[in-house]
Write a structure and sequence with these properties.
Blueprint lengths: L3 E7 L6 H9 L6 E6 L6 H11 L3 E5 L6 H15 L3 E4 L11 H7 L5 E5 L7 E2 L3 H18 L11 E4 H5 L12 H12 L4 E5 L2 E2 L10 H15 L11 H5 L1
Parallel strand pairs: 1-2, 1-4, 2-3, 5-8, 6-9
Antiparallel strand pairs: 4-7, 5-7
Helix pairs in contact: 5-8, 7-8
Bound molecules: guanosine-5'-triphosphate and magnesium ion.
The site of magnesium ion has 4 residues, from loops.
């Protein structure tokens, strides 16, 4: 068992997963991998099982139905904590995140409890997106930053590394959000706990194969969630609340 594990949520990613797994396993730093599949109709779960038979580093968590990214991550994080991993990373399965940057995130976690892979620190590094999608993402980050007061440049990204301590500080059963808001919410509770949060620059690539799950519902969830967090309308007993910041 390695001390670090990469949690990869999948929904209809059968064409992306095998290449992703081999790229992660080629890294100079060793990582285990947990695929969290929500019973993808395209058979991603079976592809993941085959990869697990081939590579002892690969594990698969099968969930019964699609419930959104947030629920899949929570299940994956709980599994990783129960198995005893010290560094828990997350990335998308669609080759938007480059596995060559996993060692950078892991290295930054030597001195931080939560490391955010940032597309926007020191300039915009997003390839293949049309202008509308880029504007939604950069405006969304500005909006989340302004309302929450967290000064990080990329609050909605899904390429991150948590130290065990950070995930233990948050009550994962009380996580509210399912889409991009999940990423903001997790960072928010770490921020309320005054954990050490850092950012490392990453390059983001548009998805390789398959269909997007990006939707209006996901955007609206994020629009409201930042207010709910800031106003203390969502609570996380373990992590404390906004009053800890103000008080
Ligand atoms: N297990 C699980 N994985 C999901 C779910 N929704 C999305 N994912 C995975 O989460 C990752 C990010 O989702 P994407 O569909 O790439 O979302 P996105 O990056 O905003 O949008 P596109 O890249 O344009 O599709 C991918 O690996 C998806 O397969 C879900 O409900 N359950
Ligand atoms: Mg994607």
């Amino acid at each position: 068992m390695n001390e670090s594990i990469v949690v990869v949520p999948t929904y209809n990613e059968r064409h992306n997963l095998p290449k992703l797994v081999s790229l992660i396993l080629e890294q100079p730093v060793s990582f285990d991998i947990l695929v969290v599949d929500d019973n993808s109709p395209d058979g991603t779960g079976q592809v993941a099982d085959e990869l697990a038979r081939e590579h002892p580093e690969v594990h698969v968590l099968h969930r019964a139905a699609k419930e959104g990214l947030g629920k899949a991550y929570v299940a994956g994080f709980k599994w990783a904590l129960a198995e005893g991993y010290d560094f828990i990373l997350e990335m998308d399965a669609d080759h938007s995140h480059n596995p060559n940057q996993l060692p950078d995130l892991r290295a930054a976690a030597e001195t931080h409890d939560v490391v955010l892979g940032s597309r926007y620190i020191g300039g915009i590094r997003v390839l293949d997106w049309d202008l509308t999608r880029l504007l939604i993402s950069s405006f969304g980050n500005w909006y989340a930053r302004s309302i929450t007061g967290m000064s990080f440049t990329d609050l909605t990204g899904g390429f991150k590394c948590y130290r065990r301590k950070a995930l233990e500080a948050i009550d994962l059963d009380q996580i509210h959000s399912v889409g991009y808001a999940f990423q903001i919410e997790m960072t928010w509770w770490a921020y309320c706990r005054k954990l050490r949060i850092g950012e490392v620059p990453i390059i983001f690539y548009g998805r390789d194969h398959g269909e997007t799950k990006f939707s209006r519902a996901i955007i609206w969830e994020a629009v409201w969630t930042v207010w709910k967090l800031r106003l203390g309308l969502i609570r996380n007993e373990a992590a404390g609340s906004v009053t800890a910041l103000v008080g």
